[in-house]
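Translate structure to sequence.
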């Protein structure tokens, strides 16, 4: 290899990057026009640089795709968790709602007789033989009311005995399918003042009202 070729090939990297002084740059350009060997070396350098640049672009592209996929996957996971929480929340709401909607509160007249009370039980058992009953006397109802207003107990201190304005009631625990049939018996059952059930209540409003009552009581 000629001495001049060695010098020029040492300068090719600087020439390629455009960092040579004017005189050195002119020397390289003149030599490349005259020397096929150095021209070939320079062409390979350009091709190698282009290949490396293309490879870098591909790597950067793959990194960018991976980064976007990672963000997308995180977003999918976050959305999935959010939806899962919403589903669990709704399952909880409707499970509690349907449990409560399967109960009927039957408020009784003050002058109800034992025969009428037995008739009410037997009528309901005729609809659902597995129905469960809980009887609450007027005194029980008053004590429950006092418990709800325990922070303002003085408001109810004057009530009791014959001065008790609340009604005795029965809580019937049955299935939702039988609730409507029991509620429809209100007018035909003697000794019944009113029947209360949450079957036609919006589940979300029902839970909201229950939560507000709990907050007020606490």
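Result:
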């Amino acid at each position: 290899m000629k001495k001049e070729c060695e010098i020029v090939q040492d300068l090719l990297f600087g020439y390629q990057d455009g960092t040579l002084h004017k005189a050195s740059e002119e020397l390289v350009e003149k030599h490349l026009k005259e020397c096929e060997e150095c021209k070939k070396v320079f062409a390979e350098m350009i091709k190698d640089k282009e290949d490396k640049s293309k490879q870098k672009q591909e790597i950067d592209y793959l990194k960018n795709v991976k980064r976007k996929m990672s963000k997308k996957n995180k977003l999918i996971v976050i959305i999935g968790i959010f939806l899962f929480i919403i589903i669990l929340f709704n399952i909880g709401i409707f499970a509690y709602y349907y449990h409560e909607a399967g109960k009927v509160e039957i408020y009784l007249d003050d002058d109800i007789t034992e025969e009428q009370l037995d008739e009410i039980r037997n009528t309901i058992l005729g609809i659902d033989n597995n129905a469960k009953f809980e009887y609450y006397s007027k005194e029980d109802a008053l004590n429950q009311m006092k418990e709800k207003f325990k922070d303002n107990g003085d408001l109810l201190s004057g009530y009791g005995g014959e001065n008790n304005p609340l009604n005795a009631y029965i809580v019937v625990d049955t299935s939702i399918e039988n609730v409507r049939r029991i509620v429809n018996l209100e007018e035909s059952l003697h000794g019944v003042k009113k029947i209360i059930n949450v079957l036609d209540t919006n589940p979300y409003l029902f839970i909201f009202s229950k939560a507000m009552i709990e907050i007020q009581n606490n």
